[in-house]
Design a protein that fits this description.
This protein has helices spanning about 35-50, 70-85, 115-120, 215-230, 245-255, 260-275; strands at about 5-10, 15-25, 25-35, 90-95, 100-105, 105-110, 125, 130-135, 140, 160, 165-170, 175, 180-185, 190-200, 205-210. With about 280 residues, it is of the alpha+beta class. Mean pLDDT is about 90; it is low at about 275-280.
């Protein structure tokens, strides 16, 4: 049995093998394996990655899916520890002033140093082109961590300053519209914030135009309350206005002007239309 390989037994009596390696005084677990041969191969692979193989020094791009016994995440972890002397859990490689998180040897994402603790404890996964982590038993989009709402439209509600959608370093992801139903427009050479609410079936109503983004967000909330009181079941999600006290919110909510009559009129027409169209045709 190779050094660093240990036999173990599961609770049900099934044998398995664990592999580990020690480098620069750090004991690193390499994982569990069903066969002793796999555990030995994992140990020798780790030794080659950490200490070299003759003149060959392995890099992240050298990982070969299917022929390597080590997981890709462990491969990146070992290379980062070898090069930087810091052990990070997960497929993370430290750079000067930022770090890279690798999903594969050809797909990596860049983050600022303030995100390091979070991503050493949360594994990024990708499904259907969307990136997410498991957080408290829920799938959470990593975009939401940076203020991007689920309904946000790329290059309209937010954009990446350098055009690289894999670069999440501070300042590169720019949020244009932070709140539901709020859009910034230019009118007479100045910016105004338009609040608009979706009435369904491709129709929407302008709630009003406001000087600040926060005013427009509160106006949207007020329109949501009015529609729900009128019987709407669309399930609107109200805006949460950061850094605004409850007292200030109540005053602004009370004083904000919205096009209440137009909103209710549109809701009444839509509601009546759906009722007329929903008759029994038998």
């Amino acid at each position: 049995m190779a050094p660093g390989v240990y036999a173990a037994v599961k609770k049900n009596g099934t044998p398995y093998w664990r592999a580990s390696v020690t480098h620069k005084g750090k004991h690193i677990s390499l994982g569990s394996f069903r066969a002793e041969e796999q555990a030995e191969r994992a140990y020798h692979e780790a030794c080659r990655v950490l200490r070299g193989d003759g003149e060959k020094q392995y890099e992240i791009a050298d990982y070969a899916e299917g022929s390597c016994v080590l997981s890709f995440a462990k491969w990146v972890t070992l290379i980062n520890f070898r090069d930087n002397g810091i052990y990070c859990k997960g497929p993370i490689y430290l750079r000067k002033g930022y770090f890279e998180y690798y999903l594969s040897s050809t797909e990596d994402y860049r983050f600022g140093p303030d995100d390091l603790f979070y991503y050493t404890h949360h594994t990024i996964q990708k499904r259907g082109g969307h990136l997410f982590v498991a957080d408290y038993g829920m799938q959470v989009s990593i975009l939401s961590r940076y203020g991007v709402k689920p309904y946000s439209v790329p290059n309209k509600d937010y954009f990446f300053k350098n055009g690289d959608e894999k670069d999440f370093r501070p300042g590169n992801l720019v949020i244009v519209n932070r709140y539901a139903g709020v859009r910034c427009e230019r009118k007479n050479a100045r910016e105004v914030y338009v609040a608009r609410i979706n009435m369904g079936k491709g129709t929407s109503v302008v709630i009003g135009r406001y000087d600040t983004e926060e005013e427009a967000a509160v106006a949207y909330n007020k329109a949501v309350d009015i529609l729900e009181a009128a019987g709407s079941e669309r399930g609107y999600v109200p805006n949460y206005i950061e850094d605004m006290s409850q007292a200030k919110y109540r005053v602004l909510y009370s004083n904000i002007k919205i096009r209440e009559a137009a909103i209710l009129k549109s809701f009444s027409k839509k509601d009546n239309g759906e009722r007329r169209g929903g008759g029994d045709l038998s």
